[in-house]
Design goal:
It comes from Tessaracoccus rhinocerotis. The chain is of the alpha/beta class. The protein is built from eight helices and seven strands; from the N terminus they run H-H-H-E-H-E-H-E-H-E-H-E-H-E-E. A hairpin with a 2-residue loop joins strand 6 and strand 7. The structure holds S-adenosylmethionine (SAM). S-adenosylmethionine (SAM) binds next to helix 4 and strand 2.
């Protein structure tokens, strides 16, 4: 099938380009052993956001949606000395698994996992130094609100990565009204219409199927 071929290609690229070390492999294993859902970014997507954060020279990263900390580890490893990553997670059990994996990766001093609904945790970040990079990967229904929060917590030039904006094509299927899909549409339309945001979306295929991500840059 097409999906098997996409996965085979991901495996081929990863075998040459993406070396997962013990801590990343262990983070994936810990997520699985704990019975957390299999919805982390793929290995190459992890490296992709890691490289984006490096290219941005990000010193402060905010992640919304931690799960078992797999993407968290990729992102935290992009930080320079003295950098910091805050990640927001609703499920205490997910946060516990993530904290253990982050600690095994030697990043406990860099990463802070805040437990609770992100919309309740976000106001607590006002007044801190601005974040340079945002990775939004939680409940898609709230994506427009999370985007609004990046304008509050970022700075001109900050980058926002919004994951899962294709969802197997559902985003343009007029018969689909699921909250994750309507939230995604609203987020894309907000990026397109907001005077302080500029953005683009790309479709992807691979081990995670047919999906994609959007990038938004804070203008002013
Ligand atoms: N970024 C992770 C990775 O790639 O390794 C995957 C995150 S997973 C797709 C989404 C996570 O968001 C889940 O762990 C879920 O519990 C969490 N979540 C869902 N609703 C949330 C909310 N309102 N606030 C914070 N986290 C939430």
């Amino acid at each position: 099938t097409a999906e098997e071929l996409w996965t085979k290609l991901d495996d081929y690229y990863d075998s040459h380009l993406v070396a997962e070390d013990e801590a990343l492999i262990e983070a994936r294993r810990a997520r699985e052993v704990a019975g957390l859902p299999d919805i982390a970014v793929a290995t190459n997507q992890g490296k992709f956001i890691h490289m984006l954060a490096q290219l941005m020279g990000a010193r402060r990263i905010l992640e919304i949606g931690t799960l078992g900390g797999y993407s968290t580890i990729w992102l935290a490893r992009a930080l320079p000395e003295g950098g910091r990553l805050v990640t927001l997670e609703y499920e205490p059990e997910h946060a516990r698994v993530a904290e253990a994996s982050v600690a095994r990766a030697g990043l406990a001093d860099v990463v802070e996992v805040r437990v609770g609904a992100a919309l309740e945790s976000l106001p607590g970040l006002v007044g801190e130094e601005p974040f340079d990079f945002f990775f939004i990967d939680a409940d898609k229904v709230n994506n427009p609100y999370y985007l609004e929060w990046t304008l509050e917590l970022g700075r001109p030039g900050s980058l926002v990565v919004l994951d899962n904006v294709v969802r197997g094509g559902q985003v343009v299927d007029p018969d689909v009204h699921a909250p994750d899909v309507t939230g995604t549409r609203a987020a894309i339309e907000l990026i397109g219409s907001h005077p302080r945001l500029d953005g683009v979306a790309l479709q992807t295929v691979g081990a995670k199927g047919w999906d994609g991500f959007a990038l938004a840059r804070i203008l002013a």
